[in-house]
Amino acid sequence: MKRNSLYNTKSGFEIKDLDDSKREVAVYLSKFDNMDSDMDIIKKGAFKKSIGERGPMSSSNRKIAFLRHHDWQKQIGKFITLEEDDFGLFAVGRLGTSTQGEDAYRDYSEGIILEHSIGFQYIADKSRFVEDLSLPSKGFYEINELKLYEGSAVTFGSNEETNVIAVKSQEDKEAQVHKMSDQLNACIKSLSNGKGTEERQYQLEMKIKNLTSRLMLLTATEPDKKVHSIEVEPTIYQGVKWDDIVQGLTKKS
């Protein structure tokens, strides 16, 4: 199963604030007590050890990284705050002035980056399977501790297997159409401005394609039904050897 691999990713949640004067963004990287697509429920306290060992206030030279698309070649800034509250894993990241940092800053400012994701390692004896026969999986995993390596800004939703559009009612459908339309307009406006690197322009084109396909499916979907959108993969640096990175972090943490 996925829990046996060295490196995993998991979707995050909303952006809380962007301070232009300080180039700082406040976000939630993870939510507690929420069952995700991996049938995991992360509990409060799961990140406490990682924050203590490699958080912004630690003495480690291998601090938890602030990345783009889980790509270790794309560090867009650094975390100046990482802490748990009752809702989840709260973070404040300060964006750098590198090319990658500038692209990310534009994407935050123009409403292109809406989601975040974490890169982590499961700890075998810190999770347990809880039986629940009402679920298709017959249960879920309660995660009490994870080894956190990085938090990433992502252009696309970070469920890499599929995008699912669920329509519970006509009002829900209209709300989703409105939200996606706003995102699409923001992407088109950003693309027309022509600012940022060629990679940023390509990412915007791919997100426009993704949103357009999802809108087409959504407008044809009846309430109380789910459909799967066309998968559009973001550009991710393919040369990263995750096992080598994780093993190196483990040795030096």
Structure in words:
There is one protein chain. The protein is an alpha+beta fold and 253 residues long. It has two domains: 2-160 and 238-248, no CATH class; 164-228. Helices cover 30% and strands 32% of the residues. The protein contains five helices and 13 strands. The protein has helices spanning 48-54, 99-109, 170-193, 198-219, 242-252; strands at 8-11, 15-19, 24-31, 40-42, 65-68, 71-84, 88-95, 115-122, 127-131, 139-143, 146-154, 164-167, 225-228. An eight-stranded mixed β-sheet has the order 1-8-11-5-6-7-3-2. A three-stranded mixed β-sheet has the order 4-10-9, with no helix packed on it. Strands 12-13 form a two-stranded antiparallel ribbon. Strand 2 (15-19) and strand 3 (24-31) form a beta hairpin. Helix 3 packs antiparallel against helix 4 (198-219). It is flat, with a radius of gyration of 19 Å. The chain starts with 7 loop residues before the first strand and ends with a helix. 29% of the residues are buried. Residues 158-164 and 228-240 have low confidence and may be disordered.
